[in-house]
Amino acid sequence: MARQRNPKPGQKPQVLALFGPTAVGKSELAVALSERLAACGQGSVLIGADSMQLYSGLALVSGAATAEQRARADHRLLGSVPIDQEFNVARYSELAHREIDEALARGELPIVVGGTGLYLQAALTEMPLRPPLRATTETALQLRLERDGDEVLHAELKAQSPRAGERIDVADHRRLLRTLGLLAEGHSVDDREGGIWTSQMRRPTRLIGLVRDRDQLYARIDARVDAIAAAGGREEVVAALAAGASRTAQMALGFRELQNGELEAMKRATRRYAKRQLTWLRKLSAAELIEIGERGIEEVADEILATDRCAAA
Q1: What local confidence, expressed as pLDDT, does residue 129 receive?
Q2: From 12-21, 169-178, 281-290, the region with the lowest mean pLDDT
Q3: Whole-model pTM?
Q4: Both ends of the chain: CA-CA distance in Å?
Q5: Cα 59 to Cα 48: distance, rounded to the nearest angstrom
Q6: Three-state secondary-structure class, residue 228
Q7: Nearest of 160, 180, 199 to residue 285 by alpha carbon
Q8: Domain 15-129+203-311 has CATH 3.40.50.720
């Protein structure tokens, strides 16, 4: 399919995409938008773009849409990957493209929702994808992480690729190991920077970046972690391990911290992750930033759909 740029002035987008840091309110907003569209006779589907919310058995840990939210709107791909399976962005790209294209064929508006930047890019573009790492490379790096620690591996990454070392946090083990593996197998890792890809959408897309005041966002993150723990987050992790949680599933943010009962460590890790998401968001040249602030989600949904709720954004 030929690549298409963002909608021209007056052109109706075929896809709506919501991106923002964890706990900013993406899930609530997506459901509110879907309900408003439904009231006008416009169908929609919410397509997940979060690498961990796709796993079954990690709904609490990953902050996936609740059962109540799923009852109010049609969610796709959430909990669709068995917990014991490895999963990657190449497989996700195929699934997301199919969901988007099938929704459009039905006359529905695809609303892509998530906080994993690479998955958002994979859903919205024909992103060139590298082959999976060799099993021997992955195993060797995982053993080194356990033996030497993440700071040693991160220092190696910075020495080999300062740009990659700058954008990948030391605690982001999944990206750290993946990038070191790509370098070890002779691939470049410096060609995905910036927001250039936002001019190469598969479909005309309205891309919205959601932000909040930092103190407000951090307070919401802390409250979310407490709520996850109170709702049985540790028990969910224990059950996932008992079910043979794959290596990639165990990279979910907070997985190890919940297992060990380290809630303050989970809060710190989540705040660092949110900071990385905001940095990534600022590089999306086509993103329309919306400050949620103290407003209710309903008001923000009205702003996105403007005065004509049936205009499908």
Answers
A1: 67
A2: 169-178
A3: 0.81
A4: 24
A5: 12
A6: helix
A7: 199
A8: no
